[in-house]
Design a protein that fits this description.
26% of the residues lie in helices and 28% in strands. By secondary structure, it is of the alpha+beta class. It has one domain: 3-Layer(aba) Sandwich (Rossmann fold). The strands form three sheets. The protein has a two-stranded parallel ribbon with strand order 1-2. The protein has a two-stranded antiparallel ribbon with strand order 3-4. Belongs to the ABC transporter superfamily.
Length: 104
């Protein structure tokens, strides 16, 4: 059994992708993995079950299909981030081959 606490913290997108691939390989080898995490988008293809733990107590258990049905508001109520990687939308102007960020 491998236990990981917030393994994606302080990692960039590429590193999180590598982490997800490593976890998938470990799972395919039959190794049990327990991950405590708020950033969950990279785990959606890997998880079998999701356990909600609050202040050291197990509050709820979800099957993978039950968890995938939760919407963004339900996830936020559980202090979890979105199941999909959010894309940053920044308003910009393109002038003369240069991009300028506006209205930030």
């Amino acid at each position: 059994i491998i236990v990981m606490d917030e393994p994606s913290s302080n990692l960039d997108i590429k590193s999180i992708s590598v982490l997800a691939k490593m976890l998938k390989i470990l799972k395919e080898k039959g190794i049990s993995i327990i991950v405590a995490e708020h950033r969950i988008y990279y785990l959606m293809d890997i998880v079998d079950r999701v356990f909600l733990i609050d202040k050291g107590k197990l509050k709820k258990t979800y099957t993978r299909s039950e968890f995938l049905k939760l919407d963004k508001n339900e996830l936020n109520a559980l202090s979890l981030r979105d199941k999909e990687l959010s894309k940053l939308k920044v308003p910009y102007l393109k002038e003369g081959g240069e991009y300028q960020i506006k209205n930030l």
